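job 3f2a | input accepted
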Amino acid sequence: MRSGNAQDHDTVNIGIVGPCYPFRGGIPHYTSLLATNFSQRGSTRLYSFRKQYPSWLFPGRSQIDPSPAPLIDIDSRRWLVPWNPITWSRVKQDWLEWKPGLIVLQWWVPFMAPMTAWLIRQAGLLHIPTVVICHNVMPHERNWFDAVLARWTLGKADHLFVHNLDDQVLAHRLLPHSHVERVSLPSYQVFDLSTWTREKAHATLNIEGNVALFFGIVRPYKGLGDLLNALPFILSEIPLTLLIVGEFWESLEKYQRQIKELGLESQVRVIDQYVSNAQAAMYFSAADLVVLPYRHATGSAVLQLAFSLGVPVVASRVGSMAEEVQDGENGFLVNSGNPEELANAIVRFFRGQYAASFRSAIAQNRARFEWSVLIDKLSEPITNQRSKLEIQSKCK
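job 3f2a | predicted structure (396 res):
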């Protein structure tokens, strides 16, 4: 990553605020990819977290990525603690010295509201344009005060970006006077599959035949129960192994009972943990199909991860998945909360031998999810600021 203190006519300093490695999850991966791609446009600094959540607020086992090394080697200033304003001031002081021309902030949970609102406010006082990328305008599990915090924080930014139509509508409803723009969630080209083949992954996992993958943290809105209810019908039509890979943020015992009651013990493999990068690559290599039976959603990093690795999907018609999955071309879309429809789509995929055509369509459509599309949009405030300064200079 380039770094520096001086701006010239063609280069602008870009500050990015958000988590990265060693914190785990889709947003740290996203932030790292964002900073890496933005560094091609100017001198970039990533302001990350020293601590991300207090332990009482985080339902998982650990906030730290178990991978021994980051997927993306990137410099970051790991200064921020969301509940410690002294750490926020350190970032402001760096802005005073470095003079960024744009600040890009991540928004995904209202817990970050005081810190995010303060940073946006300080950038405004320094006449630095601010862009907020809203991964979730509102959280999946909501409290009465979430809308208040979202409105109070996001209303301070110059520009808001979202990754799906539902969030754009919600942002406009909360903030009717704000500039809200939608752009596709870029591809998560982070896992290296070069050391894995389908055959090697199957041998390592001791599985064979058709394989479907449910991947990611297990939460109520992701519809795993619907997928398990669909499985008996699927198994009556085709052989299938279902891999459930991800840490459970709700009762694992509930799903184990469901698996037992449905007689699915021999066809379902549960890996209740946040897996390392190398393990994740193995599971995606083993999968013929990724299944996303979400009850509701905004965006899905798992969808973009599947697409970046060329794996077709069956997904619910919710959030950005309804926009990014071309039904019958790179995957199948189904109505949420409908196990019968979900089962029919999975059976159709395997019986109709759609894998090759879907993988080809995913490869041909990759340009739509290039990071350059997002970076171009995020860079517009820089262009607008320069135009404004040029006009002011000519008027003097």
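job 3f2a | The chain has two domains: 14-186+370-395, 198-358.
job 3f2a | closed
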